[in-house]
Amino acid sequence: MKIAVTYENGEIFGHFGHTEQFKVYEVENGKIVSSEILDTNGSGHGALAGFLQNLGVDVLICGGIGGGAQMALASCGIRLFGGVTGNADKAVEAFLSDSLNYDPDAKCDHHDHEHGEGHNCGQHGCGGICHN
Predict the structure, then answer these.
(1) Which pLDDT band, with edges at 50, 70 and 90, does 95 fall under?
(2) What is the CATH number of the domain that holds 79?
(3) Does some domain include residue 114?
């Protein structure tokens, strides 16, 4: 299993669509066997779901996340655990011990007011879907 965490300076980064790095953990038999920090290379919003899918990620732990990105992750088959804060390593350990404190309704509220006149979701992929 692979678990990705939005990452900045050891902590869970608070906004999925703006994360510049993920820490990706390889898990076998319920234990972390390796991890690496990967740059997103400027990918944002919906493109990040495809980025994670290409890495073979099964689970994402993050802070806030918009509805479009949630749909993109779901279309890629990536399980989402949002609304998480604090140390990235400790969050993964909590997930593995079934004690992760997360918010199943975590959303980035700023998306609600950005979708006004002249806004095209296709420009930044907020409604993007995963392409196999």
Answers:
(1) very high
(2) 3.30.420.130
(3) yes
Q: Does position 44 have pLDDT exceeding 90, yes or no?
A: no
For residue 130, is it left (φ>0), alpha (ψ between -120 and 50) or beta? beta
Q: Which two tokens stand for residue 18?
A: 């703006």
Contacts of 30 (CB under 8 A, 6+ apart): 96
Residue at 28 is within a domain: yes
Cα-based torsion angle of the residue sequence 85, 14, 32, 69 in order, rounded to the nearest 10 degrees: 130
Question: Mean pLDDT score of the chain, rounded to an integer?
Answer: 82
Mention every residue, 6+ apart, whose C-beta is less than 8 A from residue 4. Answer: 22, 23, 24, 25, 52, 55, 57, 59, 60, 61
Domain limits at 35?
2-123
Q: How far apart are CA 6 and CA 17, in angstroms?
A: 9
Is residue 61 assigned to a domain? yes
What is the mean pLDDT of the segment spanning 72-91?
A: 96
Is 132 within a domain? Answer: no
pLDDT given at position 96: 97
